[in-house]
Write a structure and sequence with these properties.
alpha/beta; Rossmann fold; 8-stranded mixed sheet; 8 strands; 22% strand
Length: 223
C-alpha cells in the first residue's frame, strides 16, 4: 500500500535544509550513468572523515545511534521515500547530531553521486526482500547492486546485512558469492549468537518480539 503524502511535506523538507541531499536525476534510466554529480562529502559534513553508508534507512533510528557511537565517522543514510526521510532528518536535527546526513533518491544511482572508493562500509538493514522472483533484480543484494557497491567501496570495504527473511538471506549469500565477495561472521540467529555491539532497528525489534530469528552477515572485498 502506498503511503499517503504527509501534510506540508515540501515545507518540512525545506526546513531540513542541508540535512537532506536530493539525488535528483533528469533521466529515469538506471543504466544511464553519463551525468555524474559527485557529492563533495567534506563540504557536506564540514570535515574530512571516513564515510559510512546506510541504504534504506527508514526513519533513521539505526543511523542516529550509529552516528552517536561512531563520532569520528561521517554517516550518510539513503532513503527514497520523502515521507519517511523527512521524519529521520527532523529527529536528527532535534537531537543535534552533527555527523549524520541523508540522501533522498534511488540506490541505483549511488555511483553517480559518490566518488569511487570513497565508502568505508555499507549497512543494509532489513531491506525489502521483494518475494516475487520477477522482482529479484530490485533486491539490494542482487548482483547488479553488488557490482555497483564495488565501485564506491574502498579496498577491504565491508557490507553488513541484517534481515528476518530466510529466503532473502539465502539469496543474498548466493549473490555475494557470485559477485566475488568473501563472507564472515554469518549468523542464523543473531540475538542468540553472543554478538556484541548490535544496534537494534525498529523492524528488528518487531520481528524479534514475534520470535523470528535475525540473520546477519558481513561481506567484504579483498584478502
Amino acid at each position: 500500500m502506498r503511503m499517503r503524502r504527509k501534510k506540508n511535506l515540501d515545507e518540512r523538507l525545506d526546513k531540513c535544509g542541508d540535512m537532506i541531499f536530493r539525488m535528483d536525476r533528469d533521466v529515469k534510466d538506471f543504466s544511464d550513468k553519463s551525468n555524474k554529480q559527485i557529492i563533495d562529502i567534506e563540504k557536506m559534513f564540514g570535515r574530512s572523515a571516513p564515510l559510512i553508508l546506510e541504504i534504506g534507512c527508514g526513519k533513521g533510528q539505526f543511523a542516529r545511534e550509529l552516528a552517536k557511537r561512531e563520532t569520528d565517522k561521517n554517516i550518510l543514510a539513503v532513503e527514497k521515500s520523502s515521507n519517511v526521510i523527512v521524519d529521520a532528518a527532523e529527529k536528527t536535527l532535534e537531537e543535534g547530531i552533527q555527523n549524520l546526513r541523508f540522501a533522498r533518491g534511488n540506490a541505483e544511482y549511488l555511483d553517480c553521486f559518490l566518488a569511487e572508493k570513497s565508502v568505508e562500509c555499507i549497512y543494509l538493514n532489513f531491506s525489502c526482500p521483494f518475494p516475487k522472483n520477477t522482482y529479484a533484480a530490485h533486491r539490494l543484494t542482487h548482483v547488479r547492486f553488488l557490482e555497483l557497491y564495488k565501485k564506491i567501496l574502498r579496498n577491504g570495504g565491508t557490507i553488513y546485512q541484517k534481515t528476518d527473511n530466510m529466503h532473502f538471506f539465502e539469496f543474498s549469500l548466493e549473490q555475494f558469492s557470485e559477485a566475488g565477495y568473501k563472507l564472515k561472521n554469518v549468523s542464523l540467529d543473531l540475538h542468540n549468537s553472543g554478538f556484541e555491539g548490535n544496534i537494534v532497528t525498529e523492524y528488528e525489534k518487531m520481528f524479534s518480539d514475534m520470535g523470528k530469528p535475525i540473520y546477519r552477515l558481513e561481506a567484504y572485498l579483498g584478502d
